[in-house]
Amino acid sequence: MNIITDIETMDNQRKFERFDIAAPARLEILQPEQSGGKIILEAHNLSAGGIFIKEAKRLPEGSVVKMEIFLPFSEPEAQTHPDRATVISVTGRIIRSTDEGTAICFNDDYDITPQKI
Poorest-confidence range of 11-20, 27-36, 47-56, 62-71? Predict the structure, then answer.
């Protein structure tokens, strides 16, 4: 097993460009119906197809989730609207959950809205 080759192959198979971020997010498990309420967490490594989150506990793989990711406006909007953020609302499925964090694959339904925070 060649770790470098495996990582390069995985990166080449990705459909969407990934971005390293550190943004607040809210996650709710919809199915199976073992809702423990909403979890506040920090989102990392975002793409159009999914996200990686660092969560202290493992989340159940295969679960359907709803997420809201809060992205602050970048310049110059931040100067005129410092109390606003862009909110990305998506549903998806947990495809992997380890001690390092959780990978979520997004469904095609999403909503992007500016919102006061």
Answer: 11-20
pLDDT one-digit tens code per residue, 60-74: 999 999 999 998 766
CATH number at residue 59: 2.40.10.220
If one counts the domains in the chain, the total is 1
Cβ atoms of residues 68 and 26 within 8 Å: yes
Residue at 31 is within a domain = yes
Measure CA 12 to chain center: 20
Over residues 33-56, mean pLDDT: 84
Question: What is the dihedral angle through the alpha carbons of 116, 111, 54, 74, rounded to the nearest 10 degrees?
Answer: -50
Encoded tokens for 60: 């159940």
Residues spanned by the domain of 101 = 20-116
Asked if residue 4 is part of any domain, the answer here is no
